Amino acid sequence: MTECTQSSFEFAALYRREVIAQFDGGDITTDAGGLLLRETDRRLKLTERLAGCFLDHRKQDQIEHTVLELVTQRVYGLALGYEDLNDHDQLRADPLMGVLVGKRDPQGKDRRRAQDQGKAGAGKSTLNRLELTPSNASSKARYKKIVYREEAMDELLTDLFLEAHEEPPSRIVLDLDATDDPVHGNQEGRFYHGYYREYCYLPLYIICGEFVLCARLRSSNIDPSKGVVEELERIVKQIRQKWPKVEIVLRGDGGFCRDQTMSWCEDNEVGYVFGLAKNKRLLKIIGKQQHEAKVQYEKTREASRVFTEFTYQTHKSWKRERRVVAKAEHLEKGANPRFVVTSLSAVQLPMRELYEELYCGRGEMENRIKEQQLGLFADRTSTELMRSNQLRLYFSTFAYQLMEGLRRIGLKGTPMAQAQCQTIRLKLLKIGAQIRITVRRVVFSMAGGYPFGEVFARVYRSLMSTA
User: Fold this and answer.
1) How does strand 271-276 pair with strand 8-14?
2) What is the model's pLDDT at position 363?
3) pLDDT, mean of residues 319-327
4) Mean pLDDT over each residue of the chain, to the nearest integer
5) Angle (deg, nearest 10), helices 67-79 and 124-132
6) pTM for this prediction
7) Average confidence (pLDDT) over 358-374
8) Is 226 left (phi over 0), alpha (psi -120 to 50) or beta?
9) In angstroms, rounded to a whole number, what is the distance separating the alpha carbons of residues 277 and 284?
10) What is the total count of domains within the chain?
11) Residue 139 sits in the same domain as residue 174
12) Is the dihedral of CA 337, 340, 227, 46 positive or negative?
């Protein structure tokens, strides 16, 4: 059977006019707003420093793609919505990507092999080798020779957080959380998790406001708090080196309420507030307050809350007594008691304020995790090895931080100042444009009907004024 490629498509007529579509527009991109990401990156020097977290054992006179170019292509690809390496086999031919990556010839006409002509970026195989390089690779390896340094990437995440503040804050809150990362193959470290009812990883996140300070991929056959103290030791040390007087408060749900973590906080002058799982002893202690809440509800038929506090120590697992704040609540569905344990005194934070404002504020960090997983594809951990899946999580995290920089610096004062990454991508980055490249210029003729032109202009002015 003869195969042919159709290049012209005739649609239903518009009155007397024929409607024809053809693939003859030349160099056209759908991601012209990525130029704003490039300016944000220039301000943060994010991909430049991220590339410095790799050791390149390749022969430099024989390569066409530097580590910086590979890392930039991967991070920008995620930010623009291209989650898979397969996407880059088409994306590499987009001159916009050549511009974003920093290629001298964004059209790829200077490529060595004929089959690569017209494709400035790296293909899926090259990017795959970057991700699959083992930790002990050297110049003697045949293909995989670019090794990432985990400790350097961890340090960079905290540096980005510190640099975003012109003045040291008086207090910061570090949020802890673990989430499920479903896997659908036989990846290293996969286990069935009874709570999530699926095979998954259990990554640990430490977040402060809009910044991810830790994104650690872990097997799911562990306690959620495993490894928390080790991560806190390095993060708190790095923060206090620059901000020695800052007050640090740790916040997390009941999965992190462990004596080891609380004891470490007490020994290192770090405050904490953790959810505390209810039990018969705790429910008995607040029996009077729970009855009072029920009486109030029966009078008003509206949700009622009564707060109380007391010192409490478990029979075996805690080394000492600690302050516990209890919320005795009654709703239409019945009693809804909740408990938190904290190192903060009643003078520092009264009961209601501690629970309703400080502890309940942790819900915002869950939005950041969802934003990264859904918008920046943190759950695309589909390689065979745990190490390479950790690198994918790092790439997603740095793509999120690049988008956060665009939101914090460029979108400040605009209607999209609080927009999530998906919204920013859809409204600000996905812009159709024709690309014209000459010896002296690269011109992007963006769609005249683009509806957010004024926002684009404001973001541009903000980024250029802070460069």
Assistant:
1) unpaired
2) 86
3) 97
4) 95
5) 100
6) 0.94
7) 92
8) beta
9) 14
10) 2
11) no
12) positive
